[in-house]
Specification:
2 domains, Glyas_Bleomycin-R_OHBP_Dase, 17% helix, four-stranded mixed β-sheet, Glyoxalase_6, 2 helices, Signal recognition particle alu RNA binding heterodimer, srp9/1, 2,3-Dihydroxybiphenyl 1,2-Dioxygenase, domain 1, VOC_core, alpha/beta, VOC domain-containing protein, globular
Length: 135
Amino acid sequence: MTRPQRPRLSGISLDAPDARRLAGFYRRLLGWTVAADEPDWVKLVPPDGGTALSFQTEPHHVPPVWPGVPGGQQMQAHLEIEVADLDGAVAQALALGASLAAFQPQDDVRVCLDPAGHPFCLWLGGAEAGAERDV
């Protein structure tokens, strides 16, 4: 008898008012490839074949509030993006349409908001930064 295959996370999906616009932002930020492009759904894949990142149009999307406040749309998930040059990565993200969040909880992490308002963290990887930190 064979063992059942272990479940594998194949992708993460983000809702946005315009799936193609948000997918374009992350495609340019990460340098990933478009694997599927439908009117309300776009899927990006990394060059190494890891977990995909997809975007679906949700006309009623409400951006989360960062940091969270009582009664506000709460952040339920965010992306962690490891970078070698934190200042350079922030500059690139801002040039592509992100904004820098007003609240920054750590010196080696920058919380940005993508064009649809989802928070994502750019964090300094490598030996000088130590272990990954989470917001």
